[in-house]
Design brief:
The complex is a heterodimer of chains A (802) and B (343).
Chain A (H helix, E strand, L loop, with lengths): L1 E3 H5 L8 H11 L2 E9 L6 E11 L2 E10 L4 E6 L9 E5 L4 E2 L2 E2 L3 E3 L2 E3 L2 E2 L34 E8 L10 H12 L12 E5 L5 E4 L7 E8 L8 H9 L7 H13 L3 E5 L7 E6 L5 E3 L5 E3 L5 E4 L4 E4 L3 E2 L12 E7 L2 H10 L5 H8 L6 H16 L2 E4 L2 E3 L7 E5 L1 H8 L5 H10 L4 E3 L5 E5 L9 H12 L20 H15 L3 E2 L5 E2 L1 H7 L6 E2 L10 E2 L4 H13 L5 E10 L10 E10 L16 H14 L16 E8 L5 E8 L1 H6 L6 E7 H5 L24 E10 L4 H12 L3 E10 L8 E10 L8 H16 L5 E2 L2
Parallel strand pairs in A: 13-24, 14-17, 29-33
Antiparallel strand pairs in A: 1-12, 2-12, 3-4, 3-6, 4-5, 6-11, 7-8, 9-10, 15-23, 15-24, 15-25, 16-23, 17-20, 18-19, 20-21, 21-22, 26-28, 27-28, 30-32, 31-32, 33-34, 34-37, 35-36, 36-37, 38-40, 38-41, 39-40
Chain B lengths: L2 H19 L3 H12 L4 H5 L8 H36 L17 H15 L3 E2 L5 E3 H4 L26 E3 L5 H9 L4 E10 L11 E11 L4 H16 L5 E8 L2 E10 L16 E10 L1 H6 L8 E8 H9 L5 H5 L2 H4 L7
Helix pairs in contact in B: 1-4, 2-4, 5-10
The chains are: A alpha+beta (802), B alpha+beta (343).
């Protein structure tokens, strides 16, 4: 909302600078969004009469004029197309300053020019530079123009919060300022000079839809002449960002910015019989608004009509069929109050946000129509020579009652944390034109004026009191209660720990928008069912992700393209819909990572080893240990088709809680990745089932397993086995045969190649035997080793390597 | 003297001369091969013995053996002194370090965690909520008027295949979820992703991170809000920052206020970061609207509360001097790698 400080001063007197006023408003109600200094150039100008106008001898587009500026006649070269004999125009004599430049006598193509004839733009009044400004007869030759319009003004632009439509006007802002400064508020005059003939002779108002159109007031002005509005009004509207049109339109806009009430002017003779019908449109009824757009209306649109046709979309925009034009003489002024939701829906349905709809849909003042119409009629009388018919025709079948709201000063004190006395509360409310009456010791009854429809409850009045007291005067507490009951959801720690562990393993945490490309989700796994976003801003953000992996892959691609080959990326985040783990519905917190490149950084003396599945298993085991879960996760190898090799883990509920492995080449290629890339996605909660029983510490048992203080007896055994025999089968067999004394068994060498057959490999195991109560002698260990060897050899094709 | 003896002595001189100029192990090795290797100069001379006059053979053989032994000894000593020199030089400690890949936390996580820690010290617990939210939790329960623009499909992301749900537009529905399931006193902060239909530019992103604060109990006041918020920003930015509260409108609070913090980089004098205003706008706050409490069946006469929201990206951009919010979501490792350690 743009506010002219000069105009504001006509409602409330203040000595503060525009900057000081802006600060008061910012800390009282509305944030300042912009400041514009208006500089007009009228000082030193005089009105002059063009006595003679001849073509410049050397330039087609220039004229050489003789201008009488009162007491002297100047020769001025003028470039304006409308420059001609007899016109009364503004003249800047040599020596006059127009902003930074000083007008001087100078030769223009060989003719001496003694000053300038000015356009509105050159005077800083409006944007009009189509020709020189032409005065009417009310101006006399030689008259000084200094006081025609104020030379300076400041336009303050405030962000008006949506709950305060009353502040979308100079009156509304002035009311705030008056409250802060405790100064009286001066309303404009609503007196009208009327003729004897009553308006009711010429106008009839019929309200057929009182719910959507509770009030419709009409006034009539006859014999007006449509022309340019007065210079000061044009300049003012221009400074508020409005383009001046003609006096009738400009006056309705002026009243809009003055009082905040939208008005509409019809050409009276285009309204059949002067008969206004406020009704709902018929479904499919066609209507052309005055911007030339054609709309198909619905039965929910409120229409202002005459007995034959619609003439305005109520509260939104007038119709092209009844617009005021240059030939218009008689005018019907509409000042109405429309139901906010109705206007909102119509404005939205037909994509017509206007200054009028903006106010009506937030809530105009239902009591304002008589004053707004009177103000408008009087201005038309004054500036368009109209005759105002007596009175108004006011269709207001069910007057809206004033709301009564009470406030307890003790409640205000309690909510704000400071003492608010009843006197202070009353004084604050009164300052805001919210008349408060005391009832008993701790109650103020406020009759809420209709311009403050936002005040409905006690707390709304407390806010008003707080604003006037000043938020800065509310104390700042130094202590606060302690909530002894503060608990922490164990999941929070789980997420943080998981990311810390991953970072410790060399992973970089990434954060992606949860909105992602639906296409990418499908390219990763055709079975994903992400949530689709109804009106997405781009295909890259068309879905709410069901899996974290596609986003990781895009990030891998981006960084590979940037020349970084070794990547370990991790993200935690929510997913929804049906995801990779196959679980449908609900919101789950997942962790996912992607790895490509080396398992260890290559160095100056080692070339490094590429990432492989055992590396990924190690990452998962480390994460598992760090989260105090199983030391050795019980992997299974049932993996989805988009992996070429991988592992899975079941959650506590039996469904997959983790999937990891190397991506199929064609899937990786869909994300622009050529290098082998490993991915993992896991459901943290379903994997870990975070512990809420405080008697148990996460992952740690009650008690501990006693460890032996006797030395170990270690043996190495190597087997040659067909490749079809899997490692886990072999080590399982060894563990089982080794019995209790076999403390640990590990693979310490894996060999494939000559002299072994192509389908064979050699696996060497280190067996560590230990007893808790004695040193194990060789004689005791040897039979167990033989038993282990015997058990292994029972697997088809397995033999001991000699 | 017999010419063969002269030749022998010349060879000794040559060897000694060459031995005096060797540098490094490989030179010594070459010297060894050249003189006493299997086909070396000295080794070859042994074949000559049988061709010499018999009276000369004894002396020649003796001198040749001496030469061979001396040469071998010399080479041995040269090799040994080389080892000594290497040992004296020792291991080169300036060789590049060996290090595993370095992990890092995302800058937004670092800031979010710091904010969490501050509130946890004040006795707040952390709560989360679903990013896909229903209209009731996201708008209705938060007293959002039916006409409020945030409800509009052009401002918020509704789901096409899950009717009545949208991506939450703020973290405030966390308030509702917590209050639905617990009785005051409630002191929580709720960080999380939120979504709004903003075109991405240097200061906007359609997905960003907020942190919600909520305190509901008997006797919670606006003064409490001011004190808590001030203390938070002091711990975040430094103990000399100030806060100021400006009236505003939010559907879920009444009275409502926007919070500005005095610019911690210029002390309020005015600088590039605060756009010369001396103040930085940080977020919204206010007393929980009675309608919000009533929506979750909490007696708004008995209990009062306050709530606030702040933007994690905003804090991160200020504290890390990052001028484009999109950098946080591009996840270029050359950006991420610059944010290490605990803030």
């Amino acid at each position: 909302m743009k506010v002219s400080v000069n105009w504001l001063r006509s409602f409330v007197e203040f000595d503060e600078t525009p900057e000081q006023i802006a600060e008061r408003i910012t800390f009282g109600a509305f944030e300042l969004e912009g400041v514009e200094k208006i500089q007009r150039h009228l000082r030193g100008l005089v009105a002059g009469k063009i006595l003679e106008s001849k073509k410049h001898p050397k330039a087609d587009k220039l004229t050489v004029t003789k201008v009488d500026v009162g007491g002297e006649v100047l020769t001025i070269v003028c470039g304006a197309p409308n420059c001609r004999e007899g016109l009364l125009v503004p003249v800047a004599k040599p020596g006059v300053k127009l902003g930074e430049t000083t007008v001087e006598s100078r030769e223009i193509r060989g003719v001496a020019s003694q000053g300038m004839i000015l356009s509105e733009r050159e005077m800083g009044l409006t944007d009009d530079h189509s020709g020189v400004l032409v005065f009417d007869d009310s101006m006399s030759v030689g008259q000084k123009l200094d006081d025609l319009v104020a030379d300076e003004d400041t336009i303050l632009d405030f962000e008006i919060t949506v709950n305060r439509p009353d502040a979308l006007s100079h009156l509304g802002i002035a009311r705030e300022v008056a409250a802060y400064l405790r100064k009286p508020l001066h309303l404009p005059s609503f007196d009208v000079q009327e003729v004897k003939q009553p308006a009711s002779d010429r106008v009839r108002v019929e309200i057929a839809a009182p719910e959507q159109g509770p009030r419709y007031l009409a006034r009539v002005v006859e014999g007006a002449s449509v022309q340019a509005s007065p210079l000061w009004m044009r300049a003012l509207l221009h400074s508020l960002g409005q383009r001046p049109i003609n006096n009738i339109v400009d006056i309705t806009n002026y009243v809009l910015f003055e009082l905040g009430h939208p008005l509409h002017a019809f050409d009276y003779h285009l309204v059949k019989d002067g008969h206004i019908v406020v009704r709902l449109a018929e479904d499919g009824e066609l209507f052309v608004t005055l911007d030339g757009r054609k709309h198909t209306l619905t039965a929910e649109d409120l229409l202002i009509a005459d007995p034959e046709k619609g003439i305005a979309l109520a509260g939104v925009m007038g119709g092209a069929n009844s617009e005021v034009g240059t030939d218009t003489r008689d005018i019907l002024i509409e000042a109405a109050y429309f139901d906010p939701p109705s206007v909102r829906r119509t404005s939205k349905r037909h994509d017509l946000p206007t200054e009028a709809s903006r106010r009506f849909e937030r809530g105009a003042d239902p009591s304002m129509p008589p004053n707004a119409a009177a103000r408008c009629a009087e201005l038309i009388r004054k500036y368009a020579d109209g005759k105002v018919l007596k009175g108004a025709v006011d269709g207001y079948p069910n007057p809206i009652e004033h709301r009564r709201v009470s406030v307890r000063p003790s409640r205000a004190s309690l909510l704000l944390g400071m003492n608010i006395s009843p006197e202070q509360a009353k004084e604050s409310l009164d300052a805001l034109s919210l008349p408060a009456e005391k009832e008993g010791k701790d109650k103020l009854n406020v009759t809420v004026p209709t311009f403050r429809m936002d005040i409905e409850r006690e707390v709304d009045l407390i806010e008003e009191i707080a604003r006037i007291v000043g938020y800065e005067n509310v104390p700042t507490a130094q202590t606060s209660h302690v909530a002894l009951q503060a608990r922490q959801d164990p999941r929070e720690e789980l997420y943080d720990t998981a990311i810390d562990l991953m970072a410790g393993m060399g992973f970089k945490e990434i954060i992606l928008p949860a909105m992602t490309s639906g296409k990418d989700q499908g390219a990763f796994d055709g079975g994903l069912e992400p949530f689709e976003i109804d009106r997405s801003i781009s295909p890259e953000m068309s879905a709410y992700r069901a899996s974290l992996v596609p986003g990781l892959l895009r990030t891998v691609e981006r960084n590979l393209n940037a020349g970084v080959d070794d990547l370990r990326l991790v993200e935690t985040g929510q997913v929804g819909g049906k995801g990779w783990l196959g679980v449908d519905g609900g919101q789950r917190q997942h962790l996912a990572f992607a790895v490509t490149g080396h398992a260890r950084p290559p160095s100056y003396d080692s070339s490094g080893k590429p990432v492989d599945l055992p590396f990924i298993k190690g990452v998962i085991a480390s994460l598992s240990r760090g989260l105090s879960l199983d030391k050795f996760p019980d992997f299974d190898y049932d993996i989805p088709g988009n992996l070429q090799q991988g592992i899975a883990l079941k959650g506590q509920d039996g469904a997959a809680a983790l999937i990891a492995g190397q991506l199929q080449q064609n899937v990786a290629a869909a994300f622009g990745i050529e290098a082998p890339v490993f991915v993992c996605e896991l459901d943290l909660e379903r994997w870990t089932a975070p512990e809420t029983d405080r008697l148990k510490r996460p992952g740690s048992p009650r008690g501990y397993k006693a460890f032996s203080r006797f030395p170990a007896n270690t043996r190495d055994v190597a087997f040659i086995a067909p490749r079809s025999v899997r490692f886990d089968q072999l080590i399982g067999t060894i563990r089982e045969a080794g019995g209790e004394l076999l403390e640990q068994v590990s693979l310490f060498d894996l060999y494939e190649g000559k002299p072994l057959e192509r389908d064979q490999r050699s696996l060497a195991f280190r067996l560590v035997f230990r007893a808790t109560d004695r040193t194990l002698a060789d004689e005791e260990v040897e039979p167990i080793v033989q038993k282990v060897v015997g058990a292994a050899k029972k697997i088809s094709g397995v033999r001991l390597r000699s | 003297m017999h010419e063969s003896l002269v030749e022998l002595r010349q060879i000794r001189k040559d060897f000694e001369k060459e031995a005096s100029t060797v540098a490094g192990r490989s030179d010594v090795e070459l010297l060894r091969v050249r003189y006493i290797g299997r086909k070396g100069i000295i080794s070859n001379l042994f074949k000559n013995i049988s061709t010499l006059p018999p009276d000369l053979r004894g002396q020649y053989g003796k001198e040749l053996n001496e030469l061979k032994n001396d040469a071998a000894a010399k080479i041995e000593s040269l090799l040994a002194s080389g080892e000594e020199a290497a040992e004296a030089a020792g291991f080169d400690p300036t060789l590049p370090l060996r290090m595993d890949f370095e992990g890092s936390l995302h800058p937004l996580t670092l800031i979010e965690r710091e904010a969490k820690r501050i509130f946890q010290r004040m006795g707040f617990s952390i709560e989360r909520g679903p990013e896909v939210e229903d209209v009731w939790h996201n708008f209705d329960a938060l007293n959002t008027p039916e006409w409020h623009p945030s409800r509009d499909t052009s401002d918020s992301f509704y789901l096409a295949n899950k009717t009545g749900f949208l991506l939450r537009t703020e973290t405030s529905p966390i308030q509702i979820r917590v209050l639905e399931n617990s009785q005051p006193p409630v002191r929580i902060v709720g960080p999380g992703r939120v979504f709004r239909n903003d075109k991405p530019d240097a200061t906007h992103h359609p997905s960003f991170t907020q942190m919600e604060g909520l305190y509901v109990d008997r006797g919670v006041t606006f003064a409490d809000l001011k004190g808590t918020v001030l203390e938070f920003y002091r711990q975040m930015f430094g103990s000399d920052v100030r806060t100021r509260f400006r009236p505003h409108f939010f559907p879920f609070t009444e009275p409502s206020a926007e919070v500005d913090v005095s610019c911690p980089f210029c002390g309020g004098e005015g600088c590039r970061i605060c756009k010369n205003s001396g103040w930085i706008e940080m977020g919204g706050s206010g007393m929980v609207d009675p309608n919000v409490l009533e929506a979750v069946h909490i007696d708004s006469e008995e209990f009062t509360g306050w709530a606030f929201g702040l933007g994690i990206e905003r804090l991160a951009m200020l504290l890390y001097d990052v001028d484009d919010i999109r950098l946080f979501y591009e996840n270029d490792v050359r950006f991420l790698a610059q944010f290490g350690g605990r803030r």
